[in-house]
Design brief:
The termini are far apart. Among the domains are: 75-254, Adenylate cyclase-associated CAP, N-terminal domain (Serine Threonine Protein Phosphatase 5, Tetratricopeptide repeat); 328-481, Pectate Lyase C-like. The protein is of the alpha/beta class and 485 residues long. It is 38% helix and 21% strand. Helix 7 (167-176) runs antiparallel to helix 8.
Length: 485
């Protein structure tokens, strides 16, 4: 029946229209209500999302940035890690841990300095050198703080009651740690390290002398530090001959050391005096009368008598002259000439010299030391009105806290360093004229006499003491002020 079939088709169409209308109403309600907070959604809402035009959809999030490329590890950086940190430094820390006490506490600050220098060398190997000292300063700051922490701790421990018996060890580290400042020295940083090594060697030798019969662990500690400085000098000489090896093809250096390394390069805070009792607990108490470094009469023997305990000596009256210590002139260990406490002796002669030997002059007054032949190095510390006549040296001559000194070089020497000294005279030979470098700091009234070539005459040239600084184009420019005499 055509009529019934038409009615059936019409009824089917109405049902489909009702279904479509119901679906549209659901869509309208879904779009006007807040977005569901649950991750479960109705099929109607899901269908709406699928049917929505692509132009109204939110843009996809940008892809995450690629991870930063790791900086290349150059052979110079790897050598510092292997030879210094994992090599000589590790050996030194092991010896300091064996020694323990305040010396170990002081030594434990050194790894932070070496780690800070490693991070700086990594940065330098991947970047070009900053164009101004002002821009370089923040990059050196972590190392500077680490050195400062070691020096401040030396002063604090030296003044503490527990540390008085270990001052000679504190001086070893205090005199040697400035060697890590080679990163600021151009064009010859290796000789600078050698200077600091010689200054520390003077005190290392005193540690060996003082403890060789009573505390071999302290002797091993001092020798390990000397070896660390030797390794540092060899490293700098090989990889940074004229200064820090920057990467001329690298990107400009950042304004500071990246934060990723700051935690490892920051030095620990200086120890407080309240920890002194804890770190010295377990150390054997030694009476002052049994200490060889306080009793010269005991130094000739390695045995301290049991009855050596005596009442503490009375303190000298104010203004009283200190007791004189015995003069000394001897060769130790076959390579160290020790000249100490000589007074009014104008005939000190060292003529049986060899190339590997060093000469250490300490606390001499109004004396003359003549050194024949070619040796390694000479240091003079704490002397007054003392003169040195030297043929030649492979490394350097270092003069510290020795007012009114005189030095005459008859052969060749690459470096002369004068520090914290007032009034001095240096006579150079013709062989020195184009080779020697003279480095001064905290000095005054220092004169350099150069040969004129006329019957052995000399022309005296004063070392400038004044500097003038001004701002030019936003930069600090410093120049020497010379006064015509």
């Amino acid at each position: 029946m055509p009529g019934q079939q038409g009615m059936h088709n019409f009824s089917t169409i109405l049902k489909r229209l009702e279904a479509v209308t119901s679906r549209l109403e659901d869509v309208a309600v879904s779009s006007s209500s807040p977005a569901p907070t649950s991750s479960l959604r109705s099929p109607t809402a899901a269908a709406h999302e699928n049917l929505a035009p692509t132009s109204s959809a939110a843009p996809p999030p940008p892809p995450p940035p690629p991870p930063p490329a790791e900086e290349a590890v150059t052979p110079a950086v790897k050598a510092y890690q292997d030879e210094i940190i994992d090599g000589a430094l590790q050996e030194f820390i092991e010896k300091s841990n064996e020694l323990g006490g305040l010396v170990q506490q002081h030594s434990s600050l050194l790894p932070a300095l070496c780690e800070a220098q490693l991070q700086f060398l990594k940065l330098a190997s991947n970047h070009s050198k900053p164009s101004t000292p002002t821009a370089l300063g923040p990059l050196l700051e972590p190392q500077g703080k680490a050195i400062q922490a070691i020096l401040e701790t030396k002063e604090k421990l030296s003044r503490s009651k527990e540390g008085r018996d270990w001052n000679v060890c504190f001086n070893v580290l205090g005199e040697g740690v400035p060697a890590w400042g080679w990163v600021q020295v151009e064009p010859a940083p290796a000789p600078f390290v050698a200077e600091m090594k010689n200054a520390a060697q003077f005190w290392s030798d005193r540690v060996v002398k003082q403890y060789k019969d009573t505390n071999p662990t302290a002797v091993a500690w001092a020798k390990a530090f000397a070896q660390l400085l030797t390794s540092l000098q060899a490293y700098v000489k090989q990889w940074h001959t004229t200064g820090v090896a920057w990467n001329p093809k690298g990107s400009p250096a950042p304004s500071s050391i990246p934060s990723a390394s700051s935690s490892s390069s920051a030095p620990p805070p200086p120890p407080t005096s309240s920890r002194g009792g804890a770190v010295t607990a377990g150390l054997k108490k030694v009476d002052a009368s049994q200490m060889t470094h306080k009793n010269p009469d005991l130094r000739s023997s390695s045995v301290v008598p049991d009855n050596a305990r005596k009442a503490p000596p009375l303190k000298p009256k104010p203004g009283a002259a200190p007791a004189k210590k015995p003069a000394k002139l001897e060769l130790e260990d076959g390579n160290k000439w020790m000249i100490e406490y000589q007074e009014d002796n104008k005939n000190i002669v060292i003529d049986q010299t060899e190339l590997h030997q060093t000469v250490h002059i300490f606390n001499c007054k109004n004396s003359v030391v003549k050194i024949s032949g070619k040796i390694n190095a000479v240091t003079m510390v704490g002397c007054k009105k003392t003169a040195v006549v030297l043929d030649s040296a492979v490394s350097s001559l270092s003069i510290t806290s020795s007012p009114s000194f005189e030095v005459q070089i008859t052969g060749q020497i690459p470096t002369i360093q004068v520090d914290t000294t007032d009034s001095g005279q240096i006579y150079l030979s013709k062989e020195c004229m184009n080779t020697v470098e003279i480095i001064t700091s905290k000095t005054s009234s220092l004169n350099i006499s150069v040969p004129t070539g006329q019957d052995g005459d000399f022309e005296e040239k004063p070392v400038p003491e004044q500097m003038k600084s001004k701002i030019v184009g936003g930069k600090l420019v410093t120049e020497i002020i010379e006064h015509a005499g």
